[in-house]
Amino acid sequence: GSLIEQLTTEKYECMVCCEVVRIVAPVWSCQNCYHVFHLNCIKKWARSPASQAEDGNSGWRCPACQNASMQVPKIYTCFCGKVHNPEWNRNEIPHSCGELCGKKRQCLDCPHLCNILCHPGPCPSCPAFVTKSCECGQTSHSVRCGQSTKIHCSNVCGNTLNCGKHSCTQVCHAGKCSPCQLTVQQVCYCGSSFKEVLCGSKEEFSDGFGSFSCQNICGKKLNCGRHNCKQVCHPQPCQLCPRLPQVVYRCPCGQTPLSKLLELGCVERKICTDPIPSCGKTCGKPLSCGSYEFVHTCESLCHEGDCKPCSHTSNIYCRCGFKKKVRLLGGFFLFLIAAITFMCDKRCNKKRSCGRHKCNEVCCVDTEHKCSLVCGRKLNCGLHRCEEPCHRGSCQTCWQTSFDELTCYCGESVIYPPVPCGTQPPECKKTCTRPHDCDHPVYHSCHSEEKCPPCTYLTQKWCMGKHELRSNIPCHLTDISCGLRCNQMSRFRLLNDCNQCVSCCLTMFFLTFSTWRLYLHLYTPLQRFLWCHKLYLMFFFFRIAAISIATKLTDLQLGDSVEISRLITKKEMKQARLQCDEECLALQRNRRLAEALEIDDNSDPFNIRSSGPKYSDLLKEDARKDLKFVSDIEKEMRMLVEAVNKGKHTKKSHCYPPMNRDHRRIIHELAQVYGIESVSYDNEPKRNVVITAVKGKSICPSNTLTSVLDKEMQSRPPPPIPHYKQTDKSSGNIGLSRPLKEEPVIDYFDVQD
């Protein structure tokens, strides 16, 4: 009715163009939501990309209800779809044909067509009356055709249930009846177990011997009447006795027929309890411990019953393969269980996936080593900790959220919830409203820090000596100096009050001895003054001594000696002397002997000092192996010593590239000869040596190591012919005795190696 009124009065608007739908304008009506659009507008909309469905294959969507349609409307039809391009009639509904609608109603049960004139919108419900039965079908009622409600009576359903034996006891209901809920008792095939099942279920089926298998041994008497059935509870009749004479044709191992054994004189079997003759051969039946490649067989003589356990042994390794043990096979399943359960006590030392914790699992076979601990690191907010499993890299941002407003101190700037945890208060451009120590104007803006910036307002303040009033001084400055002499009275003045004097002394020297408080008041004022002055001088001396020692520590770290005799007393110096050891006593004896013989320390009567440096045998041996390397090292050292002795600098250093331990030892030994400092740095394999030449300390020896080796080579006699020792006289083969393996040489100079 609303659609008819709006279309007739031309008040209905098209949702695409938002224009009024005229009476004579061609239109299209959606069959799902019944909205009316201009035909041209709906054509343009259907071709536009915005109208396409999400999957791209379901056509275009209605602008009102989003119902997808495959075909684009092309023809102007009436609402019932019978007439194309209907003409407008003043006495009829606009855009209708004026005939009966005839469309099928939305109700699925209604067989009647719409019987009103062509109209927009959905068809009204069917006005016809029909007779319908209730859900159980026992009663019937007259109702409207379009009524969708179900009819229920008050009678019992009474329909047969799924079991086919019982009837439904529920009141008239919709849908199928529920399965039968009664229970019946069933017996197993062997008759030893019982159970209850629902009536009509599949488990209720019985084949006459029973209804189910209890999975126990049957135990029924066989046809022989002497043995019981050893099969699992089964539905069919039990088999014949396997020991009947007419069933057994071979010996227990199966290698020899009983007919041959009867020819050899064995007793013929009459009943099933008679023993089966043995052939006397090895049993040879395959045991359960074997495999497809290696089959283990029974080694006992032909026998009845089960075979003995396997006597072979096998190595069982733990899960990680670290330990093994020897075990009897016994049976394949027992061996398999033992192999699975055998574990060593070794703990895994590998890092877990997080990179922080060790695995520490016993007999570990894991390859990923996932960490099951909680991370627990502090998140970026600084308040909460990470609750994720332990992981590598940075933690995620804190997921906690506050639903309270976050404001600045003055409350002008606000961050509305939800506010992520760790969010800083918003910036505010208003002037700070916190209480300040002074009354000067505030020039800084509102802030979230507890302490305000210092006040920079320019004021006038007196200097510390009260000499002059200084101008343009920021408010936060307190100690102001005018640059003149202080001229104030010293704080170590004559004090009349004993307590004040003690307080002064304690403040300056941090004394905590109670004796000062007990006995100082016994002295006269002049004596108290002298004591204070003496303590002040002691404090001043100790302070100067500490500063002097601190400045000398720098030279001490560089290797220089420090003279501290002026800083300590003679008594302390005497107490601090080192005790003379054996080397010291030897030097004293040599000094006294030189004085007795009037020998000068600088003299060299035996030409010892001018004979040149002494190179160790080990250094010479290493130099012969790599003469070019030693020659290059000596060349670098000579150039470094000459440069530092001729230049302005007191020290010069040279860094060698990374090298092995033997080459570093050669450099350390040569550095001692040249008076050069040498230190090794870094770790293997990038360990290198740095040498430092000091002016006045480093020297260039007269004879280099390469020249010494050349002289020794020239003066050395030719090597003797080697004699070989015969090791195998019987065979006549001559074996050469191998040289002994040299012991590794320890690099005592490379202290960090």
From TrEMBL:
SUPFAM superfamilies: R3H domain (SSF82708), RING/U-box (SSF57850)
UniProt GO molecular function: DNA-binding transcription factor activity, RNA polymerase II-specific; RNA polymerase II transcription regulatory region sequence-specific DNA binding; transferase activity; zinc ion binding
PROSITE patterns recorded: R3H (PS51061), ZF_PHD_1 (PS01359), ZF_PHD_2 (PS50016), ZF_RING_2 (PS50089)
Domain of life: Eukaryota
CDD domains associated with the record: NF-X1-zinc-finger (cd06008), R3H_NF-X1 (cd02643), RING-CH-C4HC3_NFX1 (cd16696)
Principal place of residence: nucleus
Parts forming coiled coils: none
Residue intervals of the RING-type domain: 14-66
Subcellular location: Nucleus
Ranges of residues in domain R3H: 627-695
Assigned GO CC terms: nucleus
Region ranges (Disordered): 711-739
Keyword Membrane: yes
Keywords, comma-separated and alphabetical: DNA-binding, Membrane, Metal-binding, Nucleus, Phosphoprotein, Repeat, Repressor, Transcription, Transcription regulation, Transferase, Transmembrane, Transmembrane helix, Ubl conjugation pathway, Zinc, Zinc-finger
InterPro entries, per database record: NFX1_fam, R3H_dom, R3H_dom_sf, R3H_NF-X1, Zinc_finger_PHD-type_CS, Znf_NFX1, Znf_PHD-finger, Znf_RING
GO biological process, one term: negative regulation of transcription by RNA polymerase II
PHD-type domain residues: 11-68
Membrane-spanning ranges: 326-344, 494-516
Family per record: Belongs to the NFX1 family.
Name of protein: Transcriptional repressor NF-X1
Organism field: Sclerurus mexicanus
